[in-house]
């Protein structure tokens, strides 16, 4: 297939008929849908899947979700560059096919053991890593800056809470009323259908990025050394933090992996700044403001990762709610998420990004406070329901704002990398925060021998999430103040010149 460069974002978007545009946006949003669905399908039937493997250790159960988020967050670094080099459409279609393959394996693992299931979940994450940045890059390269692009990004963001919701619902339906492997086999069929439709409605978007077609030239263009150091470092650090709650920090391999991971991450930055001819992440393309935004996203989504895991644990283990009923209780997240995305799309043209970040970090923090203090026997309609009305504002204000800012901050040829950074931070923060929360849990639950001790561990993990959200509020407030000060200085300077 010959991929031809597109002349401009304006000319590409204007070639779509209304029906074509609807299908284009829908299929691209399915990339977000499939990625986030894989979080929901694991959460609601977690105990059912664990029981089928004879597993009840919370440290191992957390790997069912953390393993997926780990590879989504790490391999995005390379998949964004692959999209820039080989075409966003091609990598997007491959992502659907990859998820289909490993969803099939995840279902078949019922005939093996939990190790194969975790292995399949980890490899599913690579499919999500291929989908997310290339989906965002398709939108960023297709639409020019303006209100239309703002709203399209908001629609893309709205797919996240609704996909997680639908994933949890269908995961509960298949697991509770039928057989849990059908959850993953159905996913495989949907992913293959999306790949086929994508071939029909997504145009070839590619940039003539020159590189030597030899093997060594390809390694340089992909920044293979930087990618190996970055992915290796992130994976090892994450494994160390997620294994520590299971085996304890006294195990030598845990802290050895952590030390090696930190050294590899340091090597990654050295390679990117001083060695790589074509850095995986063009740090020169990003300003200090972008660093503030990414820091806020890391804190907020790390807080969210803890919240979503322990929310389901609290509901199913202490309130004795079935997976299907818990999914029904989770329904408010969907419509509120849609409202939040529409409002965010409207606000982005009328409010400074720093203020949007302050609001989103506040929502993350408040949502965790509400579930952390909720009494076990309190009615759902009190703090729990209010919590589900608040949390979507954190997700759907921070993600569209951050992706749009980075999309507008870089050239079209770096759209894949820009999208990669945001989704890397989001998914890696979720995975790493679960390891941090697990460490806090096992150190405060007195061994977890009684229900009160287990609940104490849950609340300790949620208090960590509150702290991360508060740190995000602090960083976003500094960023908002800096933006206001810079604007005032610019106005004063213009007045003096006049």
TrEMBL record:
Pfam families: MFS_1. The keyword Lyase does not apply. It is found in: Membrane. GO terms for cellular component: membrane. GO terms for molecular function: transmembrane transporter activity. Keywords: Membrane, Transmembrane, Transmembrane helix. It is a multi-pass membrane protein. The chain crosses the membrane at residues 12-34, 60-79, 91-112, 118-139, 151-178, 184-205, 217-241, 253-271, 292-312, 324-347, 354-374, 380-406, 418-440, 460-481. InterPro entries: MFS, MFS_dom, MFS_trans_sf. Residues 24-488 form the Major facilitator superfamily (MFS) profile domain. It comes from the Eukaryota. The keyword Transmembrane applies. Signal peptide: none annotated. PANTHER family: MAJOR FACILITATOR SUPERFAMILY MULTIDRUG TRANSPORTER MFSC, MFS TRANSPORTER OF UNKOWN SPECIFICITY (AFU_ORTHOLOGUE AFUA_5G09940)-RELATED. This is Major facilitator superfamily (MFS) profile domain-containing protein. It comes from Penicillium hordei. The lineage of its organism: Eukaryota, Fungi, Dikarya, Ascomycota, Pezizomycotina.
